[in-house]
Design brief:
With 50 residues, the chain is mostly helical. It has 2 helices and no strands. Helix 1 runs antiparallel to helix 2.
Length: 50
C-alpha cells in the first residue's frame, strides 16, 4: 500500500512542476500504477490457488 504514496507524490509533482521534473513525475505515476496493478493481480491469483 506504500506505493499509493508514490502515486500521490507523482500526481502532485506532475501538476505543479514543469520541464524534466514533470516528465519524470509522469513516469513515476505510470510505474507506481503498474506496480499496484501487478500487486493486486498477484494477490488475486495466489488467493484463488490457496
Amino acid at each position: 500500500m506504500l506505493v499509493l504514496a508514490y502515486l500521490a507524490e507523482g500526481v502532485v509533482r506532475a501538476w505543479s512542476e514543469r520541464g524534466m521534473s514533470q516528465a519524470l513525475a509522469i513516469a513515476e505515476i505510470a510505474l507506481s500504477a503498474a506496480f499496484f496493478a501487478a500487486a493486486v493481480a498477484y494477490a488475486r491469483l495466489t488467493r484463488a490457488a490457496a
